[in-house]
Amino acid sequence: MLLRTRPAIRSSEITDKKLYLRRREFIQAAAVTAVGAAAGTLGVPQADAAPSWPRVKVPNFAKSPYGADEKPNAYQDATTYNNFYEFGVEKEDPSNNAGPLKTKPWTVKVDGLVDKPADYQLEDFIKPYALEERIYRMRCVERWSMVIPWIGFPLASLLKTVQPAPTAKFVEFTTLFNPQQMPGQRRDVLRWPYVEGLRLDEAMHPLAILAVGLYGEYLPNQNGAPIRLVVPWKYGFKGIKSIVRIRLTDRQPMNSWQLSAPSEYGFYSNVNPSVDHPRWSQARERRIGEFFMRPTLVFNGYGDQVASLYAGMDLKKNY
Amino acid sequence: MKPTVLAAGLLPLLVLIWRAFNAALGANPLLEITHETGDWTLRFIVITLAITPVRRLTGWHALIRFRRMMGLYAFFYGSLHFLIYVIADRFAGLDFRDGIWAWSTARGLVASIWEDVYKRPYITVGFIGLAAMAPLAVTSTTGWIRRLGGRNWNRLHRLIYATAVAGVIHYWWLVKADILHPAIYASLVALLLGFRAFRT
Ligand code: HEM
């Protein structure tokens, strides 16, 4: 048995008595509060406060078999935790600042190497296509992920309508530029307007959609209203929001994040657990709402459908 | 006065706790706590560094009584910041080959922290910043001032300059595109260190 012996000098005799007492109180108070904080954050769900944006149901859309096995994140998660630098760089900025964005009327310009270039009013742009729900995993390059039930239509359907010229090899998308309504654009955090791109065969893939809604409702502004791209096997920033222009081209577009930090973000940006971001590992991700991180899946788990697009390519070099 | 300031230093933590229990930390609460504790570490470092210049400029010498407390709070929030990182960023990302309660978990955790500190420059710099504060916290007692002698003690405690610089670099390297906040802290730290360099 071990008996603890008293030390010959008690620490209270070394340190000045008053200071010692205060120090002890301090440590006690600090310890209690720290433990409280840690316990408190685990397991408390986010408050479901009434949102400040209008919520309008999408009248007609088909349920689709995609992703029916995944449990979607809370509506609150998907609509208050956003990267949309046009409204500020903090995650809560878009849901706080995107209210003034005017999405009616909205024009989408389709031009470049197409047989039928046109400026479309949004309603006419969407009308020809049957809307369907797609429940997709969304993996952000920042190591978090969500599952979101989008409503939209395949990008391929649109491309078939506008008929790319034989020389077209890439599709370039551009976000609205309007610093008045998008306060984040008043500072040069990124080169505005935001630009993204896909190779034409990627854009034609049936998993790539143009989304107009989520959770059965039209997109709130912070999620990229009125129309945005969703490419579930790529990092979230490829999903360009509030699109005003779709241009077909024979040159690989320079996307905004690549322009900002070419050693960290490439053109392809396929989800890939074995290619680290220079500043963090991409091997795992935190699904929003969970504590333990999940292993990240190559092509975000959509490899069976999309891996053939990249046959023979070095995905470490083409990150 | 001193108890009031002491209590005030705990306010950021109390606010965090309040937010935690009221589900007001957003969708990613663990990262939010990481950011808040990181911010407060840097703020307390800036406050600590500001005390001497403010005393000189205003003649309000009683301020010196709070310098040690501010420094200890910097270390306190820095330790919380590190602890949250260890739990939420490292522990939560282990693979638990043999279940959670296994030696391999402990070994994996140490290896995972070490790998990150070794491999990611912004983590390396943060770690150096925190490590530099540890001897200052230990020797913050009156007993240690006596033992070391005022001159040596003062010399040792200049390590806080290294922490301030490390903290700014850490922040600068971790932001994705917007360097506004790290740039503000960089100017503050440059100003406060510059004051020391140029006064004779
Ligand atoms: C072992 C030491 C440290 C580690 C492992 C560490 C780790 C981290 C991590 C993981 C983040 C979040 C990065 C992200 O957004 O993904 C962070 C943020 C931050 N850390 Fe540290 N850190 C350390 C020490 C320090 C020290 C000593 C300071 C201050 C002097 C500091 C100040 C900050 C600040 C200001 C932020 C950003 C807060 C914000 O974005 O609002 N850290 N740190």
Set down the secondary structure blueprint.
The complex is a heterodimer of chains A (319) and B (200).
Chain A: H1 11-14, H2 17-41, H3 75-80, H4 93-97, E1 107-112, E2 118-121, H5 122-126, E3 132-139, E4 144-154, H6 155-162, E5 170-175, E6 195-199, H7 200-203, E7 209-214, E8 217-218, E9 228-230, E10 243-249, H8 256-260, E11 284-287, E12 294-295, H9 303-306
Parallel strand pairs in A: 1-10, 4-11
Antiparallel strand pairs in A: 1-2, 3-4, 4-7, 5-6, 5-10, 7-8, 7-9, 11-12
Chain B: H1 2-21, H2 29-58, H3 67-90, H4 103-119, H5 121-138, H6 142-148, H7 150-156, H8 159-174, H9 180-198
Helix pairs in contact in B: 1-2, 1-3, 2-3, 2-8, 2-9, 3-5, 4-5, 5-8, 6-7, 8-9
- Beta content of chain B: under 5%
Named CATH topology of chain A: Sulfite Oxidase, Chain A, domain 2
By DSSP (H or I, 4+ residues per run), the number of helices of chain B equals 9
Structural class of chain B: mainly alpha
Q: Which consecutive residue ranges of chain A, at least 5 long each, have pLDDT under 50?
A: 1-16, 38-45
Kindly provide the name of the CATH class of chain A: Alpha Beta
H/E element sequence of chain B: HHHHHHHHH
Rounded Rg of chain A: 25 Å
Bound molecules: protoporphyrin IX containing FE
Describe the protein.
The complex is a heterodimer of chains A (319) and B (200). Chain A has 319 residues and is an alpha+beta fold. In chain A, 21% of the residues lie in helices and 20% in strands. In chain A, the strands form 2 sheets. In chain A, strands 3, 4, 7, 8, 9, 11 and 12 form a 7-stranded mixed beta sheet that branches. Chain A has a 5-stranded mixed beta sheet with strand order 2-1-10-5-6. In chain A, a hairpin with a 4-residue loop joins strand 3 and strand 4. Chain B is mainly α. Chain B has helices spanning 2-21, 29-58, 67-90, 103-119, 121-138, 142-148, 150-156, 159-174, 180-198. Chain B starts with a helix and ends with a helix. Bound molecules: protoporphyrin IX containing FE (HEM). The site of protoporphyrin IX containing FE has 22 residues of chain B, from helix 2, helix 3, helix 5 and helix 8.
